[in-house]
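We modelled each protein-ligand pair independently. The example shown here corresponds to the glutathione entry; the chain sequence is given first, followed by the ligand as SMILES.
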Amino acid sequence: MLKIWGRTNSINVQKAMWLIAELELPHERFDAGMQYGTVNEDWYRAMNPNGRVPTIDDEGFVLWESNVVVRYLAAKYSANAWCPADLKKRIDAERWMDWTTSTVHPVMTPLFWGLIRTAPEKRDPAVIEANRKEMEKLAAILDARLQGRQFLCGDTLTMGDIPIGCFIYRWYALPIERGEFPNLHAWYERLAARPAFREHVMLPLT
Ligand SMILES: N[C@@H](CCC(=O)N[C@@H](CS)C(=O)NCC(=O)O)C(=O)O
């Protein structure tokens, strides 16, 4: 059976868990990371030398790096749906996954850590404001992309929606000012209507 290690409040674990739930894959999840430890145990480091979560073991195939875990699960268990069969469609989805990691994640990390995982007296308002403004620019890019589309890569969900969907939940859940982005908001509501997204992504921010 598919095994996955990682705490439920990790955004990188959430990406994988959302897809596992969408695909109804039988699995076992083990808490790991932060207060749960485990990631520094020798046996865990032998699977994942980074000491990070998530890590999966699919019938002996061990994999880490969350976007790659999503790509693998989508390709193996949902070819031509969550992982588009058409090369250009697949690469389009992968582009949004990589963009999320290279461009959105570095902006969301100081916002999330600053507002959720830092005591109020230790927060740096200038850093939070700079990244809040930067997220407005990225939201505008997504809003433009979603004009006339139900989902990022067309009218069906693909793996391209997964990493960014997790970040956009957090962005809407943070206590910050946001501009009006009607296409982005409509897309987010389509995600929020999905039980798997609600169960694994829309968790209290901790
Ligand atoms: N690039 C890696 C990053 C993994 C990562 O940094 N995960 C965080 C949680 S989101 C982690 O393991 N933090 C340390 C911990 O939980 O102990 C991925 O996408 O899987």
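Residues 10-12, 33-34, 39, 52-53, 64-66 surround glutathione (CB under 6 Å).
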